Amino acid sequence: MNDTTRFVTFPLGDERYALDSSQVKELLMPSRVYSFPHAMHSLEGVLIRRGTVIPVCDLRGAFGHGAERNLYVIARCNYAGRAETVAIPVSGDCELVPSEVTFVAGLLHTGGKTVPLLNLDQVMAHCIQPAIGLASEAQR
Amino acid sequence: MEALKEIERRPLFVSRSAKPVAATPGPVILFTAGGKRFAVQASEVEEIRDRDDRTAIRKLKGPEPIDFALHVGLGAGILERFVVLKPGEVSLGVTEVERMTILPKVVPLPGLFRGAERQWYRGLLVMENDVIPLVRTEYWRMAGASTRETGSGA
């Protein structure tokens, strides 16, 4: 079983964050953001990429890092039950790095402590393995 | 940067979620309000009046005006022109009416836009190196009717 996958890491201010590379469509050099009046706080406008309109989501509101933008990470996400594409401004170079699949989906800050939030799907897939596979699978 | 190049080499799949949709063919009227450009389908416009016309007409119970810039969060606008929507009961107070042009394809608002803008706009026009919202006249007619009832027009 291969538990290695690849991630795209990128800086937001002083911190680095990562996305599963399968979510990342491309990286864009800074380009014009077209703004128009709307009611969504974190969206600052849209980029035009090959005729497609891509909303730009500034994550500073969520992560609190104000920084210059050097690149846009164009990524897929699920929002309100639909697959969407979003451009995330980042403040430095991105790297594609391999890594073991982590069982941690996030970090929970509670009572002054940081508690890992388990990705139960990954845990189950890794930990629950049949001692003997099905005959039909063995024949493949 | 090697890693960056590797990403760039990967096949790219451009989202089709925001591809152009069919729009009612016809020209649009471009206008500015609050320093931004907008468009309205010409077929939805009864007439365009200037400020003096509006003052005179209003005394005769003319179309209820809406300060367009104020309504979309741009602050109180400079109302120099009034775009009267059919059938003539509501007008949009705007700064300037630029011109009429051919309606390009309308791109729907990306799904991440889930606020009031979905009511304000039918979609976006990508034209002239700009992205211009196309107003949803049904909504503005309703907003005008509401303004008339509450007496809070421009």
What does this structure look like?
The complex is a heterodimer of chains A (140) and B (154). In chain A, the strands form four sheets. A three-stranded antiparallel beta sheet of chain A has the order 2-1-8, with no helix packed on it. A three-stranded antiparallel beta sheet of chain A has the order 3-6-7, with no helix packed on it. Chain A has three helices and ten strands; from the N terminus they run E-E-E-E-E-H-E-E-E-E-E-H-H. Chain A is globular. Chain A is 12% helix and 50% strand. Chain A is mainly beta. Chain A folds into two domains: 94 residues, CheA-289, Domain 4 (OB fold (Dihydrolipoamide Acetyltransferase, E2P)); 37 residues, no CATH class. Chain B is an alpha+beta fold. Chain B has one domain. In chain B, the strands form three sheets. A four-stranded mixed beta sheet of chain B has the order 3-5-6-4. In chain B, strands 2-1-7 form a three-stranded antiparallel beta sheet, with no helix packed on it. In chain B, a hairpin with a 2-residue loop joins strand 9 and strand 10. The N and C termini of chain B lie far apart (55 Å). About 7% of the residues of chain B have low confidence. The chains are: A mainly beta (140), B alpha+beta (154).
List keywords for this structure.
heterodimer; A: 140 residues; mainly beta; OB fold (Dihydrolipoamide Acetyltransferase, E2P); 2 domains; three-stranded antiparallel sheet; 3 helices; 12% helix; B: 154 residues; alpha+beta; globular
TL;DR?
The complex is a heterodimer of chains A (140) and B (154). Chain A is mainly beta.
Q: Biggest sheet of chain B, in brief? A: 4 strands, mixed
> Care to count the β-strands of chain A?
10
Mean pLDDT of chain A: 84
Strand content of chain A: over 45%
Name of the top-level CATH class of the largest domain in chain A? Mainly Beta
Q: What is the helix fraction of residues of chain B, given as a range?
A: 25-40%
Approximate helicity band of chain A: 10-25%
Assembly classification: heterodimer
Please, what is the average pLDDT of chain B? 81
